[in-house]
Amino acid sequence: MADFKGLIRGTPLLPILQPDTVEQAVNIAGAVYASGLRSVEVVRRTSAAAAAVSAIRETYPDLLVGMGTVLNAEHVREAVDAGSQFIITPTISEKLLTALSDSPVPYLPGTASPSDILLAVEAGLSEVKFFPAAVCGGAAMLNNYRAIFPEVSLCPTGGISGDNLHEFSSLPNVFAVGGSWMIPKACVAESDWQGITAACSLAQQQYTK
Ligand code: 3PG
Q1: Rounded distance from Cα 178 to ligand 1 centre (Å)
Q2: Dist CA 50 CA 31 (whole Å)
Q3: Which of 79, 92, 124, 139 could form a disulfide with 109, with the two C-beta atoms 3.0–4.6 Å apart?
Q4: Which residues contact 109 (CB under 8 A, 6 or more apart)?
Q5: Which CATH class is domain 11-206?
Q6: Which atom number of ligand 1 is nearest to the Cα of residue 159?
Q7: List of residues 6+ apart from 156 with CB closer than 8 A
Q8: pLDDT number for residue 11
Q9: pTM given for the model
């Protein structure tokens, strides 16, 4: 199985999509795809999430689509059954790690502290999400992790936007950045798909190492 970092190589920005309907999700995914980004995380916080993953995969086979906000074994099954190509969780536990390791797709567990990261490392992982990044110490916290966990790569999400993206993306231990700012709520409300493409394109320009 490909590692998470390997899977999203070349597309280090993960727009976070919370779908109201399947049709809306496909339109948003199309707008993301048009920007050149090649991955999207659908959060399972609405009843449309699983069907949205399946529909996006069918409509945009070149776009990597995964499910986020996965918290337990049942959610892992739901994500895999929907066709998710990766799974992201907001948090971590031994039970959740077991459920994830039983899944056939790459996954990224959420961490918010050094203890969380150690739990992931003890499970043999070297890639984790850092959430909610902005309020859990931000880029300064991630910079401190470099000395403690030199082998761990992180994907911060939560509270990131064009204003602070560079602080995170420029860190050597950051391999990707995720967030909902690339799919602006105002654009979704107005079905402004070009606005979403523009937001994703701008994020690509602002993601600098
Ligand atoms: C999440 O998992 O919900 C994301 O990290 C969202 O954070 P954001 O909306 O602040 O980008």
Answers
A1: 7
A2: 19
A3: 92
A4: 89, 91, 92, 96, 97, 100, 120, 125, 128, 129
A5: alpha beta
A6: 10
A7: 129, 130, 131, 133, 139, 142, 168, 174, 177, 178
A8: 86
A9: 0.97
